[in-house]
Design goal:
Shape: globular
Radius of gyration: 22 Å
Order of helices and strands: HEHHEEHEEEEEEHHEEHEEEE
CATH architecture: Roll
Number of helices: 7
Distance between the termini: 21 Å
Number of domains: 1
CATH class: Alpha Beta
Strand order of the largest sheet: 1-12-13-14-15-10-11
Number of strands: 15
Helix content: 10-25%
Largest sheet: 7 strands, mixed
Length: 382
């Protein structure tokens, strides 16, 4: 990301915001925030069910129309048109999404994106899309900066049948390669089966599924803390899982993800879920929360904070499996100024004669490994 450039401003107000809501069939909110006015649960949208192929096609078309509107009228207009009313942006903490976007002008950037993979819950009320994006500065002539990456967008079907964005996050990556590089190409999909029957039993099952999803997320966090992130991931990722990290190409599939995680040493980490949302058919959901790499040998001390976002699927009443996982580093809290550096402080005293010289500064850190969130110190793979 380009520091304080217009490109960075575009990302802050546009595609790379993590949006979340107490939507679809409802949500478990671990910690209520000012930006989540619905609290712990929301009513389900009418289930579509039935023709999943048609539902996927409608979702893909909504994604493409969203991108076309962004190119034609700018980020602000596009996001206001497609954000759900209760969407939340992370800046870096949660803020009301539509209010945040409406209060800011559209930045001088051109953002294009296209889906390469999509899935819809059997109930038809929740779905997601993912694929590459390209962001170009337009305010500084043809030499403007360009950034590429991959986005993940979760959608909720509204009462009128329209799809609205409820969750969106992106990772900066090298330009897409292979079939992903062709906008308008074939869009893959997951393995969710035929539609579900609505009714009281379905609502009861969905509520149980929310708790099961939250338990799965917590279970992953506990496993990662105790045994390392690689072992925890390999136990719960689906065969077709997608793994996004800033600065690295996407890792798709168990083999590629396993190689990436195995190529770097693991470090102590913590994972704290905030929200779990499940479709009314109990087969598709997402979680997000806080994560951190911990200081070695210093229990409870955070070396690098971050956030994670996961999409989960399951078959029948089987276990939830991760199908999309995206982790991003967050800026560390500013350090407390020592007394001598505070405004109005007296100048530092000269060391007394014969005092030992000050310690040499530590050597510069190596670049973070490809599997680490952006900004992590070398070897601090999550």
């Amino acid at each position: 990301m380009a520091g304080t450039s217009v490109l960075a401003v575009g990302l802050v107000t546009g595609c790379l915001g993590l949006l979340a809501t107490a939507g679809a069939a409802g949500a478990i909110v671990e910690k209520e925030t000012p930006a989540s006015p619905q609290g712990a649960a929301a009513a389900a949208a009418p289930a579509a069910g039935g023709d999943l192929a048609a539902a996927r096609a409608a979702l893909v078309e909504a994604e493409r129309a969203f991108s076309r509107l962004s190119q034609r009228e700018g980020l602000r207009a596009a996001f206001l048109a497609y954000l759900a009313e209760d969407a939340v942006l992370f800046r870096p903490g949660p803020v009301p999404g539509r209010e945040f976007i409406a209060a800011r002008p559209s930045p001088p950037v051109e953002l294009t994106w296209w889906p390469v993979y999509a899935e819809v819950a059997a109930s038809g009320d929740l779905g997601y899309t993912t694929g590459p994006y390209v962001l170009r500065e337009t305010g500084q002539g043809p030499g403007g900066e360009t950034q590429t990456g991959y986005y993940v967008t979760v959608w909720r079907r509204q009462a009128d049948g329209a799809w609205k964005v409820v969750a969106d996050l992106g990772a900066t990556t090298p330009p897409p390669a292979g079939s992903d590089a062709a906008a308008g190409g074939e869009v893959g999909h997951g393995r969710i089966g035929a539609g579900a029957q609505a009714g009281k039993k379905q609502a009861e099952l969905a509520e149980a599924a929310q708790h099961a999803l939250l338990a799965a997320d917590r279970g992953f966090g506990g496993d990662a803390t105790a045994h390392g992130a690689r072992a925890a991931y390999m136990a719960v990722i689906a065969d077709e899982a997608r793994f996004y990290r800033d600065g690295a190409p996407p890792a798709v599939g168990r083999e590629a993800i396993g190689r990436l995680l195995a190529s770097h040493p693991q470090r102590a980490s913590s994972w704290e879920p905030t929200v779990a949302v499940v479709a009314s058919s109990s087969d598709l959901g997402y979680t997000y929360g806080k994560t951190a790499v911990m200081e070695p040998g210093r229990p409870g001390r955070i070396r690098q904070p971050g956030l994670y976002f996961r999409i989960w699927e399951r078959k029948g009443d089987g276990p939830f499996k991760i199908v999309v996982d995206l982790v991003k580093a967050l800026p560390p809290s500013p350090p407390m100024l020592p007394p001598a550096d505070r405004p109005g402080a007296a100048p530092p005293r000269e060391p007394p004669p014969g005092a030992p010289p000050p310690a040499a500064p530590p050597p510069p850190a190596e670049p973070p490994p490809p599997g680490a969130p952006s900004g992590l110190p070398a070897g601090a793979t999550l």
